[in-house]
Amino acid sequence: MMDRFILRAQLLAVLPNGVVLHASSVAEDDAAFVFLAQSGGGKSTVMSRLTQERFGAIADDSVVIARGTDGVTRCLPCGSMKQSAGTENIDAAPLKAFYFLEKGSPAFRYMLSPRYAFYRVLKNSSIMAYGHISKNEYRQAVAFLETLFKSYPAYILRYGIDEDPANLLFQ
Asked: What pTM does this model have?
């Protein structure tokens, strides 16, 4: 119940220039990467593997993506992650790219068209607090997402159990 309240409050705080997604996010060199998948699809696993190496954690399970007054779109940690991690030392970073995760072999990274990436994020019901916002709030979130997928690259990232997802991010 508390997480739902936090997610809805965060979503309302960033609309119309932001959204809260069911995703994880890491950063490297002031660039944030967002990982989208259904529950059990590997978001936390990929984030964990990447943060063991050179990446910093931003968000696990839900990520706030918002355009600031300076015009920069950033990934920010969700309030519930800060609570569960017990730290305030999780920083925001400018958005670089989206990755739709798939488990399997062969491993690959494939760039998606903006239109298909947008369709896929809506199909997966990736907007957090979706069932607890008005139709107008939902329309604002969808409009922001459409802008995001026109502005930032999106990829399918398929990886196997033995593969290092970091090797696939920059192919």
From this structure: 0.90
